[in-house]
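Appendix B. One record, verbatim.
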Amino acid sequence: MTRAHQGDIIKSIKVFKGRGIRVLMALVLACFVPLVGCSNTSKQENAVTSSLREVTTFEGGIAYRTQGDTYWALSLSGSWEEMGRQYGGLVSNDLQNFYHEITEDIAVRGIPEDEQLQTAQEITASLDDDMRAMMNGMSQTSGLTYDQVIELNVSMLILAGELLNAEPTDACSGIAVWGDYTADGTLIFGRNWDIDRAGMLKYMKYLAVVVCNPDTGYAFANVHPLGEVYMETGLNEKGVFIELNNGLESDTGNYPDRISTFAVLAEALNKYDTIDDAARYIAGIPGDMSYIIQVADAYRAVSIERPTYGCRIRTGDQEGLLVAYNSFIAPYPVGWEAIVLPPPALETDPRYVNLIATANSQEYYGKINLETMENLMELDSAHGGAIHDGTVLQVIAVPRDLTLWMRGYKFSDWQQVDLRELFR
């Protein structure tokens, strides 16, 4: 896909109606991938903290803050509506502040509140009953109306459309490494979420890990700014990690009548305890839009390339290495060659080649642990990495330990969240 082609897509989504809304969701919602390795180093102990400070409780939900009072970590339990009530009651002030700040920001950029609400209503209709029940519960205790809650849920999507305008940045990227690439074979998963750092950095103060412990199925964590309940990045209590990259560079198809991918990912985390079962479930449901979905556990990762016309599960670039960005990776399955849109030229987007080369370099091969993975995630696209001006959020996951690290890039240091403290 050419950049001009991408520009046409972004222009089309700015009206926020019909197909444009769905394309916007795919552009915004996606992109990190895994880094794997051993984490038993002094750097792990010194560079990040695992302590969570309990702040308050509400109807059985518990709110914590990470080191330095940086981010929220919430532990919710019960029915989806009950968890929504806990969510709203625990962080009502921040939800209200975030709502007013970002909706006013969007309005100043040219999208009035009534158009924001229309977009929110159309996107909410594509989500599942659990997400809608949670947002209904939030509206009962947060000080926001239901309409305001659903607006907040999609506010980052709407803002992204305005920030990207006709010249979208490269979206998300990531790398998974395990086996011979790491110190002990254990997988570490690192993720870059890329949109527009200049326009979104101020909202990283609302970044949170929200853990849902529903009445049925497995508990799972969702990494998002507060109030965004749809699933892009998550880890369940059985150590299954899932993350989403947009795949519009390879396929711009759109089928709004199909099951929402964001609901599919949440259901996979809630229902499945193995990488194989989760991947088969995701691959078996036709895509509403084109996505590249990574699924990992403690020892390996796979990439599900899921256009609107088929699906394949890719096992990696080399044994122990999986890199993904926003284009499908050649060679393609039989029948795809004439359909897949070509990836950007190397000089335009070197991220995929960069990450493979860096993982195989003398500095990194066989040595990847938390410290070297942090170093890799600091590399920009001109120096063997994937960071650029669009990078907003980074996540590291160690499924073996049920542990996440997260930071708003250029906003905070790495903050560690031990999910075993939040799963119930």
